[in-house]
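2.7 Reproducibility. Because tokenized structures are sensitive to small changes in the input, we list the exact sequence used for GNAT family N-acetyltransferase, including any N-terminal residues retained from the expression construct. No trimming or masking was applied before prediction.
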Amino acid sequence: MILSAADIMNRLDQIAAAYADIFAEPPFNRDPLTASAHYRHRLLNDAQRPGFRAAIAQTDGKIAAFATGWQTLAPFRTDRAYPQVSEQLGAQRVETSLVGAFEVDQLGVLAHSRGQGLGRAMLDELIADVPRQRAWLLTWSTAKATIDFYRHVGWRQLRPLTDTTGAEVKNDVVVFVSPAVPEEN
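Resulting structure tokens (single pass, no recycling of outputs):
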């Protein structure tokens, strides 16, 4: 279910608690109280972004999964993990592949609800109304199960740039684009 801004405010504590439960697990291992407070504050700000969307799935009236995102505007952001994305892809590819596309910022499925198709359903619902379903996301290179999931549902990892020795530029992030995004040349 796609949420309105009012719905998000009404469910803010539930969404933040779900975030904390998910990200307290390996490989993230975040402190649940700190994670909940941090995400609650962040979600309040993120909900004001142009093109912001959020979706939730519920089981027995409780959040089982959630997803959030927004349109990527120019200039490309320089906070959080965005500098690592720019380093890995280069300014030109960021401009052509990511700016203007929808960024899936968070996708979370609670442990007891995994393996039921909720992650794919959240992604599909979140980007259903996005022009040409042009979307992207990043995840952490240590999140192997998450990387495997995105590959399994057809999202494609963007190849990192290569340095002067021909080695790929690698850092802590992995960038994926939605199945609808055309292959790079």
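Helices lie at 5-10, 12-23, 32-46, 82-89, 91-98, 118-127, 144-152.
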